[in-house]
Amino acid sequence: MPLAAALGSRLQRFAEADREQIVEALGYDPILIALYADSVTDHGELYPPTLAIDVVARFVETAEAEAATSAGHLQDEYDLALSHLAAQMLNERDLYPRWDDVQQWLSVNEVQAIRELVQLGKICRVTGRRGENRF
User: Fold this and answer.
1) Cβ distance 36 to 52 under 8 Å?
2) CA 44 – CA 95 distance, rounded (Å)
3) pLDDT tens-digit profile of 107-124?
């Protein structure tokens, strides 16, 4: 079971019914299960199974908060920039946009916020694809 591997010795702190509820809430997805386990590790406490459905949102919020403490934007500014970028990516039907396009789609402040999140490297990145920088 992926939850056992992700939680290790902490698994015993969960009732069997809670374990199944967590895994089911995470859609049996090993990546989401690992994110859930990391959130348990990062916060030093166990989250009830009902919070398993918010694992991605907590992960993003944690990364935004980390960026806010080390860079120049507020957490809400990171969230707004990500929301605008996601909407534009869907509108343009481009899930791997060129970095140049991202810079055209967003305001200067939003581009800087996205750049700071890219530098943090937890929720997004820019990589070279076919000779171009892609988000």
Assistant:
1) yes
2) 35
3) 999 999 999 999 999 999
Report yes or no: 39 and 47 within 8 Å, Cβ to Cβ. Answer: yes
- Predicted pLDDT of residue 35: 84
**What is the reported pLDDT for 135?**
95
Q: How many CA atoms lie within 13 A of 133 on its CB side?
A: 9
Count of C-beta atoms within a 10 Å radius of residue 81: 23
Residue 14: name the closest of 48, 44, 38 by CA.
48
| CA atoms lying within 13 Å on the CB side of residue 68 | 12
- Single-letter amino acid, residue 121: G
* Structure tokens given for 19: 């374990």
In this prediction the pTM is 0.75
What phi and psi, each to the nearest 5 degrees, are found at residue 98?
-65, 145
Structure-token match 């989401």, residue found: 32
Q: Where are the domains of the chain?
A: 2-54, 71-134
Of the CA atoms within 13 Å of residue 45, those in its CB half-sphere come to 4
